[in-house]
Amino acid sequence: MASEPSHGRAALALSAAVALFLAGCSGKDHNPGATPAAGGVTLTGAQRQHIRLFTVQPSTFKGTVQTFGVVDFDNDQATSVLAPFGGPVTRILVTQGQHVDKGQALAVVNSADFSAAVSAYRKAAAAAANARRLADIDKDLLQHQGVSKREADQAETDAVGAEADRAAALKTLSSMDVGAGAIGAIQQGRTAAVASGVIRAPISGVVVDRPITPGQLLQAGTTPVFTIAKLSRVWVMAQVFEADLPAVQVGETAKVQAAGAAFAGRVENVGAQVDPATGAVAARVAVDNPGDALKKQMYVQVAIQGHQSNRGILVPVAAVLRDDENLPFVYVAQPDGSFGRRQITLGERVGGEYQIPAGLKPGDQVVDDGAVFVQFMQDQ
Q: What is the model's pTM?
Protein backbone atom coordinates (compact mmCIF):
# COMPACT_ATOMS: atom_id res chain seq x y z
CA MET A 1 0.00 0.00 0.00
CA ALA A 2 1.45 3.39 -0.98
CA SER A 3 2.31 5.84 1.73
CA GLU A 4 -0.35 8.44 2.48
CA PRO A 5 -0.10 11.80 0.64
CA SER A 6 1.31 14.79 2.44
CA HIS A 7 -1.25 16.81 4.41
CA GLY A 8 1.02 19.76 5.09
CA ARG A 9 3.70 20.12 7.66
CA ALA A 10 2.23 19.79 11.13
CA ALA A 11 3.68 23.02 12.43
CA LEU A 12 6.66 25.27 11.79
CA ALA A 13 8.34 24.16 15.01
CA LEU A 14 7.89 20.49 14.17
CA SER A 15 9.29 21.00 10.67
CA ALA A 16 12.31 22.79 12.05
CA ALA A 17 12.91 20.03 14.61
CA VAL A 18 12.64 17.32 11.97
CA ALA A 19 14.94 19.26 9.66
CA LEU A 20 17.57 19.36 12.37
CA PHE A 21 17.05 15.63 12.98
CA LEU A 22 17.49 14.84 9.29
CA ALA A 23 20.62 16.93 9.12
CA GLY A 24 22.44 14.28 11.15
CA CYS A 25 20.89 11.30 9.33
CA SER A 26 20.77 9.99 5.80
CA GLY A 27 17.47 11.14 4.25
CA LYS A 28 15.01 8.98 2.40
CA ASP A 29 16.34 10.22 -0.91
CA HIS A 30 19.88 9.34 0.20
CA ASN A 31 19.15 5.73 1.09
CA PRO A 32 19.26 3.65 -2.05
CA GLY A 33 19.35 0.44 -0.04
CA ALA A 34 16.07 1.18 1.77
CA THR A 35 12.98 -0.03 -0.02
CA PRO A 36 9.66 0.86 1.65
CA ALA A 37 7.52 -2.15 2.46
CA ALA A 38 3.88 -2.07 1.45
CA GLY A 39 2.08 0.28 3.77
CA GLY A 40 5.19 0.81 5.90
CA VAL A 41 8.05 3.22 6.43
CA THR A 42 11.63 2.01 6.08
CA LEU A 43 14.41 3.85 7.89
CA THR A 44 18.14 3.75 7.40
CA GLY A 45 20.35 2.33 10.11
CA ALA A 46 21.35 5.84 11.18
CA GLN A 47 17.72 6.95 11.38
CA ARG A 48 16.73 3.90 13.43
CA GLN A 49 19.24 4.94 16.08
CA HIS A 50 17.05 7.99 16.79
CA ILE A 51 13.87 6.08 17.57
CA ARG A 52 12.99 3.79 20.44
CA LEU A 53 10.80 0.72 20.34
CA PHE A 54 8.43 -0.37 23.09
CA THR A 55 7.53 -4.05 23.40
CA VAL A 56 3.87 -4.56 24.26
CA GLN A 57 3.20 -6.73 27.31
CA PRO A 58 0.16 -7.13 29.58
CA SER A 59 0.45 -4.93 32.68
CA THR A 60 -1.36 -4.61 35.98
CA PHE A 61 -2.47 -1.07 36.74
CA LYS A 62 -4.95 0.96 38.73
CA GLY A 63 -7.41 2.99 36.75
CA THR A 64 -7.76 6.74 37.10
CA VAL A 65 -11.07 8.56 37.45
CA GLN A 66 -10.94 11.76 35.43
CA THR A 67 -13.38 14.45 36.49
CA PHE A 68 -13.66 18.10 37.50
CA GLY A 69 -14.14 19.92 40.78
CA VAL A 70 -14.51 23.28 42.50
CA VAL A 71 -12.09 24.71 45.04
CA ASP A 72 -13.39 25.58 48.50
CA PHE A 73 -11.81 26.61 51.78
CA ASP A 74 -10.76 23.88 54.17
CA ASN A 75 -13.60 24.37 56.63
CA ASP A 76 -11.51 22.76 59.35
CA GLN A 77 -9.13 25.70 59.00
CA ALA A 78 -11.56 28.54 58.28
CA THR A 79 -13.94 30.48 60.49
CA SER A 80 -16.61 33.11 60.09
CA VAL A 81 -16.24 35.87 62.67
CA LEU A 82 -19.50 37.19 64.11
CA ALA A 83 -19.80 40.55 65.86
CA PRO A 84 -19.25 39.87 69.59
CA PHE A 85 -21.08 43.10 70.47
CA GLY A 86 -23.45 45.54 68.82
CA GLY A 87 -22.87 49.09 67.64
CA PRO A 88 -21.62 51.06 64.63
CA VAL A 89 -18.23 50.26 63.09
CA THR A 90 -15.83 53.16 63.58
CA ARG A 91 -12.67 51.73 62.00
CA ILE A 92 -11.68 48.72 59.93
CA LEU A 93 -8.05 47.84 60.54
CA VAL A 94 -7.41 45.11 57.93
CA THR A 95 -8.02 44.57 54.24
CA GLN A 96 -9.24 41.55 52.32
CA GLY A 97 -6.34 39.27 51.42
CA GLN A 98 -4.24 40.40 54.40
CA HIS A 99 -2.62 37.82 56.66
CA VAL A 100 -3.50 38.26 60.35
CA ASP A 101 -2.33 36.63 63.55
CA LYS A 102 -4.54 35.18 66.26
CA GLY A 103 -5.69 38.00 68.57
CA GLN A 104 -4.89 40.76 66.07
CA ALA A 105 -7.32 43.70 66.02
CA LEU A 106 -9.58 43.65 62.97
CA ALA A 107 -12.07 46.45 63.58
CA VAL A 108 -13.18 48.97 66.22
CA VAL A 109 -16.85 49.33 67.18
CA ASN A 110 -18.51 52.14 69.14
CA SER A 111 -20.38 49.71 71.34
CA ALA A 112 -22.72 50.43 74.21
CA ASP A 113 -22.69 46.66 74.85
CA PHE A 114 -18.95 46.77 75.43
CA SER A 115 -19.23 49.80 77.70
CA ALA A 116 -21.99 48.12 79.71
CA ALA A 117 -19.95 44.92 80.03
CA VAL A 118 -16.91 46.82 81.32
CA SER A 119 -19.06 48.72 83.81
CA ALA A 120 -20.80 45.53 84.95
CA TYR A 121 -17.49 43.83 85.52
CA ARG A 122 -16.09 46.71 87.52
CA LYS A 123 -19.19 46.78 89.72
CA ALA A 124 -19.15 42.99 90.18
CA ALA A 125 -15.43 43.04 91.02
CA ALA A 126 -15.94 45.79 93.60
CA ALA A 127 -18.97 44.04 95.13
CA ALA A 128 -17.09 40.73 95.33
CA ALA A 129 -14.09 42.35 97.02
CA ASN A 130 -16.33 44.11 99.58
CA ALA A 131 -18.38 40.96 100.27
CA ARG A 132 -15.23 38.92 100.77
CA ARG A 133 -13.85 41.57 103.18
CA LEU A 134 -17.05 41.49 105.27
CA ALA A 135 -17.08 37.68 105.28
CA ASP A 136 -13.50 37.62 106.55
CA ILE A 137 -14.38 40.13 109.31
CA ASP A 138 -17.40 38.06 110.40
CA LYS A 139 -15.26 34.95 110.39
CA ASP A 140 -12.80 36.61 112.76
CA LEU A 141 -15.61 37.97 114.95
CA LEU A 142 -17.17 34.51 115.14
CA GLN A 143 -13.94 33.19 116.63
CA HIS A 144 -14.20 35.87 119.34
CA GLN A 145 -17.97 35.41 119.73
CA GLY A 146 -18.63 38.87 118.29
CA VAL A 147 -21.28 37.56 115.82
CA SER A 148 -23.41 34.47 115.64
CA LYS A 149 -22.52 31.55 113.41
CA ARG A 150 -25.63 32.24 111.37
CA GLU A 151 -24.44 35.78 110.62
CA ALA A 152 -20.97 34.54 109.65
CA ASP A 153 -22.43 31.87 107.36
CA GLN A 154 -24.64 34.44 105.69
CA ALA A 155 -21.67 36.72 105.08
CA GLU A 156 -19.76 33.81 103.50
CA THR A 157 -22.75 32.99 101.29
CA ASP A 158 -22.97 36.62 100.17
CA ALA A 159 -19.25 36.64 99.35
CA VAL A 160 -19.48 33.44 97.29
CA GLY A 161 -22.49 34.83 95.39
CA ALA A 162 -20.69 38.10 94.66
CA GLU A 163 -17.62 36.23 93.43
CA ALA A 164 -19.82 34.15 91.12
CA ASP A 165 -21.30 37.36 89.71
CA ARG A 166 -17.77 38.68 89.15
CA ALA A 167 -16.81 35.48 87.31
CA ALA A 168 -19.88 35.76 85.07
CA ALA A 169 -19.08 39.39 84.27
CA LEU A 170 -15.49 38.41 83.45
CA LYS A 171 -16.72 35.67 81.12
CA THR A 172 -18.89 38.24 79.33
CA LEU A 173 -15.83 40.44 78.81
CA SER A 174 -13.82 37.50 77.53
CA SER A 175 -16.56 36.62 75.03
CA MET A 176 -16.19 40.14 73.65
CA ASP A 177 -12.51 39.45 72.88
CA VAL A 178 -11.24 41.82 75.55
CA GLY A 179 -7.53 41.07 75.94
CA ALA A 180 -6.00 39.84 79.19
CA GLY A 181 -4.03 43.07 79.51
CA ALA A 182 -7.15 45.22 79.28
CA ILE A 183 -8.97 43.00 81.78
CA GLY A 184 -6.03 43.25 84.17
CA ALA A 185 -6.10 47.03 83.90
CA ILE A 186 -9.84 47.07 84.61
CA GLN A 187 -9.33 44.82 87.62
CA GLN A 188 -6.80 47.26 89.01
CA GLY A 189 -9.11 50.21 88.41
CA ARG A 190 -6.66 51.89 86.04
CA THR A 191 -9.18 52.46 83.25
CA ALA A 192 -12.57 54.06 82.97
CA ALA A 193 -15.46 52.42 81.15
CA VAL A 194 -15.11 53.05 77.41
CA ALA A 195 -17.55 52.72 74.56
CA SER A 196 -15.14 51.23 71.97
CA GLY A 197 -14.83 47.50 71.50
CA VAL A 198 -12.22 45.75 69.38
CA ILE A 199 -13.03 42.75 67.18
CA ARG A 200 -10.05 40.38 67.13
CA ALA A 201 -8.97 37.47 64.95
CA PRO A 202 -9.86 34.10 66.54
CA ILE A 203 -7.25 32.27 64.42
CA SER A 204 -4.22 33.09 62.31
CA GLY A 205 -4.83 33.11 58.57
CA VAL A 206 -5.87 35.25 55.62
CA VAL A 207 -8.85 37.60 55.60
CA VAL A 208 -10.80 36.11 52.69
CA ASP A 209 -14.03 38.05 53.21
CA ARG A 210 -14.86 41.40 54.81
CA PRO A 211 -18.57 42.14 54.34
CA ILE A 212 -18.73 45.12 56.74
CA THR A 213 -18.20 48.81 56.03
CA PRO A 214 -17.40 51.79 58.28
CA GLY A 215 -20.55 53.07 59.98
CA GLN A 216 -22.44 49.81 59.62
CA LEU A 217 -24.53 48.90 62.65
CA LEU A 218 -23.63 45.47 63.98
CA GLN A 219 -25.91 43.11 65.86
CA ALA A 220 -24.18 41.16 68.59
CA GLY A 221 -23.81 37.44 67.76
CA THR A 222 -25.54 37.64 64.38
CA THR A 223 -23.70 40.00 62.01
CA PRO A 224 -20.84 38.28 60.10
CA VAL A 225 -17.90 40.67 59.97
CA PHE A 226 -14.94 38.69 58.62
CA THR A 227 -14.01 35.26 57.29
CA ILE A 228 -10.49 34.08 58.07
CA ALA A 229 -8.99 30.97 56.51
CA LYS A 230 -5.68 29.17 56.36
CA LEU A 231 -5.00 28.74 52.64
CA SER A 232 -2.00 26.42 52.86
CA ARG A 233 -4.50 23.60 52.33
CA VAL A 234 -7.84 23.73 50.51
CA TRP A 235 -10.67 21.39 49.63
CA VAL A 236 -11.58 20.42 46.09
CA MET A 237 -15.12 19.13 45.75
CA ALA A 238 -14.73 16.63 42.91
CA GLN A 239 -17.80 15.40 41.02
CA VAL A 240 -17.84 11.59 40.83
CA PHE A 241 -20.47 10.00 38.63
CA GLU A 242 -22.25 6.72 39.30
CA ALA A 243 -20.12 4.56 36.99
CA ASP A 244 -16.92 5.70 38.73
CA LEU A 245 -18.12 5.47 42.34
CA PRO A 246 -16.82 1.91 42.96
CA ALA A 247 -13.30 3.07 42.05
CA VAL A 248 -13.21 6.03 44.44
CA GLN A 249 -12.59 5.44 48.13
CA VAL A 250 -11.38 7.49 51.09
CA GLY A 251 -7.59 7.58 51.21
CA GLU A 252 -6.98 7.37 47.46
CA THR A 253 -4.43 9.78 46.00
CA ALA A 254 -5.49 12.48 43.55
CA LYS A 255 -3.93 15.06 41.28
CA VAL A 256 -5.50 18.46 40.74
CA GLN A 257 -4.54 20.54 37.70
CA ALA A 258 -5.19 24.27 37.58
CA ALA A 259 -3.42 27.57 37.07
CA GLY A 260 -0.86 25.81 34.87
CA ALA A 261 0.34 23.56 37.69
CA ALA A 262 -0.39 20.21 39.35
CA PHE A 263 -1.22 19.79 43.04
CA ALA A 264 -1.16 16.59 45.07
CA GLY A 265 -4.21 15.63 47.11
CA ARG A 266 -5.99 12.83 48.90
CA VAL A 267 -9.66 11.83 49.06
CA GLU A 268 -10.94 12.57 52.58
CA ASN A 269 -14.64 11.97 52.15
CA VAL A 270 -17.09 10.58 49.60
CA GLY A 271 -20.59 12.00 49.86
CA ALA A 272 -23.65 9.90 50.60
CA GLN A 273 -26.05 11.85 48.40
CA VAL A 274 -26.40 12.23 44.65
CA ASP A 275 -26.89 15.76 43.38
CA PRO A 276 -30.15 15.58 41.38
CA ALA A 277 -28.99 18.41 39.11
CA THR A 278 -25.75 16.71 38.02
CA GLY A 279 -26.23 13.05 38.91
CA ALA A 280 -22.85 13.11 40.67
CA VAL A 281 -21.60 12.56 44.20
CA ALA A 282 -19.19 15.08 45.74
CA ALA A 283 -15.85 13.63 46.82
CA ARG A 284 -13.83 15.94 49.07
CA VAL A 285 -10.16 16.05 48.12
CA ALA A 286 -7.74 17.79 50.51
CA VAL A 287 -5.02 19.53 48.51
CA ASP A 288 -1.82 21.23 49.61
CA ASN A 289 -1.85 24.77 48.22
CA PRO A 290 1.65 26.27 48.14
CA GLY A 291 1.67 29.95 47.32
CA ASP A 292 -2.13 30.12 47.68
CA ALA A 293 -2.41 29.37 43.96
CA LEU A 294 -5.82 27.68 44.25
CA LYS A 295 -8.66 30.12 44.87
CA LYS A 296 -12.17 29.52 46.12
CA GLN A 297 -14.69 28.74 43.35
CA MET A 298 -11.90 27.93 40.87
CA TYR A 299 -12.80 25.10 38.47
CA VAL A 300 -10.08 22.44 38.27
CA GLN A 301 -9.37 19.10 36.61
CA VAL A 302 -9.14 16.16 39.04
CA ALA A 303 -7.58 12.73 38.49
CA ILE A 304 -8.33 10.25 41.30
CA GLN A 305 -6.28 7.06 41.51
CA GLY A 306 -8.74 4.18 41.65
CA HIS A 307 -8.26 1.38 44.19
CA GLN A 308 -9.24 -1.47 41.85
CA SER A 309 -6.43 -3.27 39.99
CA ASN A 310 -6.91 -3.91 36.25
CA ARG A 311 -4.86 -5.85 33.73
CA GLY A 312 -4.37 -4.89 30.11
CA ILE A 313 -2.04 -3.44 27.52
CA LEU A 314 -0.43 -0.05 28.09
CA VAL A 315 1.71 1.98 25.67
CA PRO A 316 3.58 5.25 26.24
CA VAL A 317 1.66 8.42 25.46
CA ALA A 318 4.37 9.48 22.99
CA ALA A 319 3.68 6.40 20.86
CA VAL A 320 0.05 7.38 20.14
CA LEU A 321 -0.58 9.61 17.13
CA ARG A 322 -3.76 10.69 15.33
CA ASP A 323 -4.63 10.63 11.65
CA ASP A 324 -6.52 13.18 9.56
CA GLU A 325 -9.81 11.93 11.00
CA ASN A 326 -8.44 12.29 14.55
CA LEU A 327 -8.40 8.51 14.99
CA PRO A 328 -5.58 7.12 17.18
CA PHE A 329 -2.86 4.89 15.72
CA VAL A 330 0.67 3.67 16.45
CA TYR A 331 3.58 2.57 14.29
CA VAL A 332 4.29 -1.15 14.68
CA ALA A 333 7.52 -2.87 13.60
CA GLN A 334 6.92 -5.21 10.63
CA PRO A 335 8.75 -8.52 9.92
CA ASP A 336 10.57 -6.89 6.98
CA GLY A 337 12.02 -4.14 9.23
CA SER A 338 9.62 -1.38 8.19
CA PHE A 339 7.06 0.35 10.41
CA GLY A 340 3.36 0.27 9.60
CA ARG A 341 0.39 2.14 10.96
CA ARG A 342 -1.96 0.24 13.24
CA GLN A 343 -5.31 1.68 14.23
CA ILE A 344 -6.00 1.24 17.95
CA THR A 345 -8.78 1.75 20.46
CA LEU A 346 -7.70 4.31 23.04
CA GLY A 347 -8.67 3.74 26.67
CA GLU A 348 -7.97 5.79 29.76
CA ARG A 349 -4.69 7.49 30.50
CA VAL A 350 -2.69 5.90 33.33
CA GLY A 351 0.15 8.23 34.27
CA GLY A 352 2.40 8.51 31.21
CA GLU A 353 0.68 5.67 29.34
CA TYR A 354 -2.58 4.90 27.57
CA GLN A 355 -4.59 1.74 28.01
CA ILE A 356 -5.19 0.03 24.65
CA PRO A 357 -8.32 -2.17 24.79
CA ALA A 358 -8.01 -3.24 21.14
CA GLY A 359 -5.53 -3.05 18.28
CA LEU A 360 -2.37 -4.47 19.84
CA LYS A 361 -1.27 -7.85 21.14
CA PRO A 362 1.56 -8.96 23.43
CA GLY A 363 4.90 -9.01 21.61
CA ASP A 364 4.09 -6.16 19.21
CA GLN A 365 6.81 -3.54 19.04
CA VAL A 366 5.58 0.05 18.67
CA VAL A 367 7.60 3.17 18.04
CA ASP A 368 7.83 5.20 21.26
CA ASP A 369 10.29 8.10 21.01
CA GLY A 370 10.49 9.13 17.37
CA ALA A 371 6.93 8.27 16.35
CA VAL A 372 6.38 11.80 15.06
CA PHE A 373 9.52 11.49 12.93
CA VAL A 374 8.28 8.24 11.42
CA GLN A 375 4.99 9.96 10.55
CA PHE A 376 6.90 12.79 8.92
CA MET A 377 8.90 10.35 6.84
CA GLN A 378 5.71 8.60 5.71
CA ASP A 379 4.14 11.89 4.70
CA GLN A 380 7.00 12.73 2.34
A: 0.55
